[in-house]
């Protein structure tokens, strides 16, 4: 599924205005097939814009913490950067 960058929302507004102008011209000229072709495009554009608004509102950072180092045992402090070397 295509995702739209929220920065592109103003461009979607421009596209909708253009589609609506084309649709009105098609109505004025009696081009029923053109109107029928533009209607689903306008609906899809509006749906995609609403989806983008929802995604932008839901985007936030989540702190997942740091994963344990490989070979570390919980609560022992092992695996904290000594590489298993304990000194001489």
TL;DR?
This protein has 88 residues and is an all-alpha fold.
Descriptors for this entry?
mainly alpha, 0% strand, 88 residues
The pLDDT mean sits at: 83
Question: In total, how many beta strands?
Answer: 0
Shape: rod-shaped
Count of alpha/pi helices: 2
Q: Report, as a whole number of angstroms, the end-to-end distance.
A: 58 Å
Strand content: under 5%
Broad structural category: mainly alpha
Q: Approximately how much helix is present in the residues?
A: 40-55%
Which sheet architecture does the biggest sheet show? none
Radius of gyration: 27 Å
Low-confidence stretches: none
How are helices and strands ordered from N to C? HH
Write the layout of secondary structure elements.
Elements lengths: L8 H21 L2 H27 L30
Helix pairs in contact: 1-2
Describe the structure.
55% of the residues lie in helices and 0% in strands. With 88 residues, the protein is mostly helical. The model has no long low-confidence stretch (mean pLDDT 83).
